[in-house]
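User: I'll paste a sequence; please echo it back and then give the predicted structure.

Assistant: Echoing your sequence first, then the prediction.
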Amino acid sequence: MTPTESDDAYHLDRAGVRAAFDRASASYDAAAVLQARVREELLARVDMLKLEPRIVVDLGAGTGIATAELKRRFRRATVIALDISPGMLERARNRSGFLRRFERVCADAERLPLKDASVDLVFSNLMLQWSDVPDGVFAEVRRTLKPEGFFAFTTFGPDTLRELRAAWAAADGFTHVNRFIDMHDIGDALVRAGLTEPVLDVERFTLTYTDALALMRDLKTIGAHNVTAGRPRGLTGRGRLQRMIDAYEALRQDGRLPASYEVIYGAAWGAAGRPAAPVVGGEVRIAPGTIRRRSPPGG
């Protein structure tokens, strides 16, 4: 059995995730172009709901850009930047000013040091893919979210970095790219956790690079290291690296290499007796874009 044939090969090393983002904390903001674009869209979606939260958690806050924006929007709220990486939170500290101060908490999203039913809004931009399965994170969001609270998040879907995954598959049998979860499986997990009225939709992006190594350098700069259990140990040999590069070169268009990203936007409410989305034949039936039309309680 090759490493890629086992689900265990995609198990994420949590200590490795923390260390990778610690190392990337100084360079992250300059390189995280797509993350910034997705963050702004998610903030805009939250704005449309006209919420007035008292407690806000930025789950997977990174360097705190979204946290500062949430504090600007909700000036009377207690806003918490929560991240697994101390290095990221140290960078976030520079964005927490006297007039717009937010709290910083270093913790794992699957073990939140927060009281039950204590949070009005959980905001999470492109963090969920750094957990093996979403159930643990969603269970903690459900536990800490108030019954009328709101959860807004983004994560990557399975088409993300499909070109890089295929190129490495042609080079060896190891895992080099995370496994990303399908939108319908995300919806199922929200329902299992007890979160209600989940809504999901997808946006696709294509970034282009001069060569495969430029893409890999970009990923390293934002902390997206390969920390899967099935990764190759030790240095990657020149032969395997060249086979990957050659396979990727077959995809070159107009002088550039594409890198696909599938971004899933999701939202759900707390468990205040709201009906869950119907599950039919193992799939959660969700109207894409519903989040744009959802009115808050009393709206």
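Residues 1-6, 227-231, 273-299 have pLDDT under 50 and may be disordered. Residues 3-292 form a domain with the Rossmann fold fold (CATH 3.40.50.150).
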